[in-house]
Structure formats: structure tokens, C-alpha cells
Amino acid sequence: MTQEPSHPYPGRLITLDGIDGVGKSSQIEILTERLRSEGREVLCVRDPGSTDLGTKLRAMLLDSDLQMHRRTEAMLFMASRCEMIESTLRSALADGVTVISDRFLLANVVYQSVGGEVDSQTLWRLGRLACGGIQPDVTLLLDLPAEISMRRVGGEPDRMESRGVDYMAKVRQAFLDELPNAGGRTHVIDASGTIERVAEAIAAIELF
Ligand SMILES: Nc1ncnc2c1ncn2[C@@H]1O[C@H](COP(=O)(O)OP(=O)(O)OP(=O)(O)O)[C@@H](O)[C@H]1O
Ligand SMILES: Cc1cn([C@H]2C[C@H](O)[C@@H](COP(=O)(O)O)O2)c(=O)[nH]c1=O
């Protein structure tokens, strides 16, 4: 079955996602190096972040001392993503660049729907409006039990990590449940092996 295009541009949007500590950033580093060694122009962005506004919003959203309603939280993540798309991501795709995003709308749906007052369908609808018609071409979901991933997270827990391992276990399941709605091609990668083993599993996936 042919898939609807994720966006009207020649570039490629690849997103990596999963619960905190699953190993996304480590894999993005390896994937970026590999694609660049193959001669591809690669732009890495982080969600939330990657703009002045997004960086400020990230600091607030991860500040354990800051209280906010779940709908407020959801919309601030969407605002950061909108700014990143309209100031960086869209033009890169238009120029044919491969964009690797550390998280995207899928994280917004699962992290803000678990245990909160906002349902996933509403978050998909609002989130797609905020993304201005851009969806990932490929979503790589790194999957790992929350008990293991939370042990990998170092330092003081941020506002999301402070919600604890039970919340993170529900987020993990929500990622698996919502992945088919992410748009484009989707893959679940077992993140329980060594960094090298996980990188091999990602290298075996056809990204283009
Ligand atoms: N496959 C792996 N096996 C064991 N440790 C790993 C693996 N991948 C990453 N780590 C380690 O786990 C920690 C978190 O890794 P990383 O920052 O890549 O995860 P992350 O998903 O980006 O985390 P976060 O979402 O919290 O930023 C790091 O100390 C990293 O070295
Ligand atoms: C995009 C997005 C992220 N989150 C959560 C997920 C993590 O706990 C933090 C981001 O930190 P990381 O270093 O990327 O893990 O924010 C969220 O709750 N909603 C979102 O839309």
C-alpha cells in the first residue's frame, strides 16, 4: 500500500524517540556520523529545543520546580516544535537535507496523554496543526523496559523523570500503542543490547 508523503519536500525527516534513558542521543550520534560518511548532508535538531525560543521553553518544561497544567505543558512542547519547524526544519527539507530529530510529535502525544486530562487523539490533532503539515518520513522507536532505562538516566531527575518509573512504564506502552499514528514508516528497535548492537539494528533499516 503506497503511503501518503510525509511532506512536500525532497529532504528526509528521520526521528528517533523512546522513554528517557533509552539511548536516543547515543544512537543519533552514530547514525549522523554514518550518514555523513556516506556523503549525505545531515542536520540534527532536538525537540524541544534547537531555537532560542525552544531552548528557553525546554528549560521551563524540564524545571522540576515549575508547576503547570498538563494542557499548558502539551501546548508549550508544541510551540517549541512549531518554532523549530518554521525557523529550521522546513527550509532544510526544502533544500534536500536529511534532518534527524531527537524526538518529535509522537513524544508529545504519549508523554502528555499518560495520566493527564488530555487524550491522544486531541494531541495528534493539535500537534499536526502545530507541525504545519510536516510529519516524519521514518520514526525509529527505541524500546526498553522503564526499570532499565531509568537506571541509565544520571544526575538530578528533570520534571518528566521526577514522575517516576511507573509513569515511564506507561509512557513506554503508549509509545508502542501510538507509533502507527506517527506517519511515514515506523520501526521498533530493541534498545536492550549494547550501543553497538543497537546501532547495527538501526543500520539494517532502509531509511531512504
Ligand atoms: N545500549 C546501551 N547500553 C547501555 N548504556 C547505554 C546504551 N545506550 C546509551 N547508554 C547510556 O545510557 C545513558 C543515556 O544515554 P542517552 O543519553 O543516549 O539516552 P537518551 O535516550 O538520549 O536519554 P534522555 O532521553 O534522558 O536524554 C548514557 O550514559 C549512555 O552512555
Ligand atoms: C518532545 C517532547 C519531550 N517530552 C519529554 C521527554 C523527555 O522527558 C523530555 C525531553 O528530554 P530528552 O533529553 O529529549 O529526553 O521532555 C515531552 O514530555 N513532550 C514532548 O513533546
Automatic annotation (TrEMBL):
Biological-process GO terms, alphabetical: dTDP biosynthetic process; dTTP biosynthetic process; dUDP biosynthetic process
A Gene Ontology cellular-component term: cytosol
Key words of the record: ATP-binding, Kinase, Nucleotide biosynthesis, Nucleotide-binding, Transferase
Catalytic activity: dTMP + ATP = dTDP + ADP
Major enzyme class: transferase
Stored InterPro entries: P-loop_NTPase, Thymidylate_kin-like_dom, Thymidylate_kinase
GO molecular function: ATP binding; dTMP kinase activity
Binding site for ATP: G18, I19, D20, G21, V22, G23, K24, S25
Family according to the record: Belongs to the thymidylate kinase family.
General function of this protein: Phosphorylation of dTMP to form dTDP in both de novo and salvage pathways of dTTP synthesis.
Name by which UniProt lists this protein: Thymidylate kinase
